Amino acid sequence: MRIPLKNPILAASSGLTNSVEKIKELEEAGVGGVVLKSIFEEQINNEVTNMLSRDVQNTDYPEAEDYIRNYLRDNTVTRHLELLEKTKQKVKIPVIASVNCITADEWTTFAKDFEDAGADGLELNIFYVPNNRNESPGDIEQLYADVLNKVKKEVKIPVSVKFGLYHSNIIRTADLLKANGAAGIVMFNRFYEPDIDLEKMELTSSEVFSSPNDIRHTLRWVGIVSSQVFEIDIAASTGIHDGNAVIKQILAGAQVAQMCSTVYLNGPQVISNALEEISQFMKKWNFKRLEDFRGRLSYKNISDPMLYERSQFMKYFSNKK
Ligand SMILES: Cc1cc2nc3c(=O)[nH]c(=O)nc-3n(C[C@H](O)[C@H](O)[C@H](O)COP(=O)(O)O)c2cc1C
After folding, report:
1. For the stretch 100-123, what's the b/e string if a residue is b when 16 or more beta carbons lie within 10 angstroms of its beta carbon?
2. How many angstroms is it from 27 CA to the middle of ligand 1?
């Protein structure tokens, strides 16, 4: 995204990046850059709905909803802009703002406010749960492109799109985002997932944090997409818990790796440790720059690319006695 970084580790958008103090700690631990906690379209929409239903009497006239929506939106945007401005004053590392959008409404227009407040880049965290059987995969991909398109009209800073694993054709999604002006993609967001508590007989949330095993989905798609979609930077996200995981993503073709769960679980020190592991690895293999090994084991650079495509365990089981 042409944002100069001193190393390839970014702190992912989350509660870890929602205050200047926490971001300062991450900088001290050596992180290359941060993505601020997202400002959520969904959250504001819910707040509006809640407020309207609580105060039916005063809001039962046509302008009320607009007024409340604008008020809540401006208030939330102001809080985020303040965080961005203060962070930019206190840290030297690049700061990327993050907007969660689920529609291409007027919501996208305040991307410009983030640019004006000094954001080095913008990450669009787009997640849409398709629960309408009449929508085709193409319609859904188009929604992502529409949001991006609208934001690109507002800003000059580089924009990336963070999306989830559940796309029927990830290469096509990346192509579409590139064609609509994305400078980068973040693969993948890890969303709130449901679970069921059998004791209480109710729906709950499943484990919030990833585990190191979750790296494999990201690794497969970073390896494949980096080989097929050019001139778009890939930030790997999900399951990257240590320096070795960052190295693996770079070998697969990622530009940077984002860390989240491991920092929650182990503290910012995990970033210093990861940087040390990367240095040791580079010394061992005599690599001077990340470019010396970036993409070396991507889909197009290995002799058996089928390893990236293999989805069944046939060989594994046929080798077992
Ligand atoms: C507590 C928590 C809050 C998060 N908040 C956001 C957010 O505001 N915006 C966003 O794009 N991703 C958010 N994420 C997702 C992370 O940025 C990251 O993509 C995901 O956790 C996968 O990375 P990991 O395996 O390193 O945790 C959040 C994750 C966690 C665990």
Report:
1. bbbbbeebbebbbbbbebebbbbb
2. 18
Bond prior to 281 in cis (omega within 30° of 0): no
Pairing verdict, β 233-237 and 256-259:
parallel
Measured in whole angstroms, the distance separating CA 181 from the mean position of its chain's CA atoms is 17
Q: CA nearest 144: which of 187, 96, 208?
A: 187
Report the separation in Å between the CA atom of 208 and the middle of ligand 1, taken as the mean of its atom positions: 9
Within the chain, how many helices (H) and strands (E) appear? Answer: 13, 11
Other Cβ atoms closer than 10 A to 65: 15
- CA of 208, closest atom in ligand 1: 31
Mean pLDDT, consecutive 10-residue stretches, the chain (321 aa), reads: 96 97 98 94 67 62 69 79 97 96 71 94 90 90 92 95 93 96 96 91 93 95 96 97 98 98 98 98 98 97 88 61 54
Ligand 1 lining (C-beta closer than 6 Å) = 12-15, 37-38, 98, 125, 162, 189-190, 208-210, 214, 237-240, 259-261
The CA distance from 125 to 164, in Å, is 9
